[in-house]
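Annotated sample (chain length 457).
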Amino acid sequence: MNLLFRLARASAPRLLCALLALPLIGQAQSPRLRPATPATPPTEAGERTLDRVVAVVNEEVITLNELHLRTRVAEGQLRRQNIPLPPPDVLKRQVLERMIIDRAQVQQARETGVRVDDQTVNAAIARIAEQNNMSLPQFRARLEQDGVTFARFREDVREDILTSRLRDREVDNRIQISEAEVDNFIAEQAGVAADAVEFNIAQILLRVPDNADTRRIEELRARAEDLATQARGGADFARLAASFSAGAEALQGGELGWRTAERLPTLFIDAVKGLKPGEIAPVVRSPGGLHVLKLVGRRSAVDARLATGPVQQTRVRHILLRVSDLTPEPEVRRRLVELRERIVKGGQDFGQLARLHSVDASSTRGGELGWIYPGDTVPEFEKAMTSLQPGEVSEPVQSPFGFHLIQVMERRVEESPVERNRQAARQALRDRKAEEAFQEWVRQLRDRTYVELRLDD
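Output written by the structure step:
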């Protein structure tokens, strides 16, 4: 399967959710977005405040105006999720800590040579505009209307991609999965696949610094136990998470989302497997800190099972064009329709046109994506691909990545998808390890970052 589609399918929803930051544009907001900061933004009372430094992160500063605007974004995000707002001072400190961690990651990315070119940023912004059913000029005007300069938004997009690439290099690419682990995983799944379930778990994470002494650890454990007691006593867990959790999902009420057991840390599964939805697990300790866990829900995960019978594969190729300032959506569609006519009516070679016009890495292979299994691509692409007969060329198809012409080259049925299952098992194991490794890496980065807090000055 083409690496672009495997990675894009996993990362694109996260990227889009992270960047749809304006209340009137997207339903999800970014905990990272830093809107353009006016010199003296209005307060709730309509007054204007003088700016000042509230934190120093290594050699960079975070200003009060930045913090005010980020807090306003967080408040909107919590309201849309119907999560009760924490006290203003608590939320402000929570947001500031998120900003410190974000700033440290961006600094680390730049210091270690991670770069993002303008073409990548432009493509990401085009996808965001498409996701919001807007042309790029409309999206840009909407940003300006809501007080966010396009230049500032571009930098936020660039920084999000920077930190994503940093995670790939520093965490994900260093995870090793042995063949023995794959064998053991497949053997385990063979006995439980029919009863496979997904869990939705929410957490409150209290980080334990590397240099914490016994007294500090006990203080944090006492706080975690108190939060667990409050949650068991009826306190709103989402509000507690938004107030106290150091996890990246704190402003989503601590929810990790629906995941199969293999995509969760083993200690999480062990803690919640005997719980009923709504119940709170005993506090658990991981390398990243102390966790208060709530089982939000449990459901069947039949679709997540390893394949046990014949699987149809499709060999496919495509031509991908993206919307940009120079090529708005109508022009992209017109060009693809013209290319399709040259292939279908003019007899021109699909692969040759893909080499000349397609804007993704597959262009050097004539647009070929190789043999694709069900679920390997985004839904829009798969739906169009499935409807085609071998040799047939689709009309322009829109996906989060742009507009495609798709041609199915051939299909086959794999009777015993051994390698497919091994790939799925390897990815499941990687997902399980990646979250634990990332949380530990963030904790270490935060501990070695020089931070000077001036919020109370």
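Annotation: The longest strand covers residues 402-414.
Annotation: Residues 55 and 453 are 5 Å apart (CA to CA).
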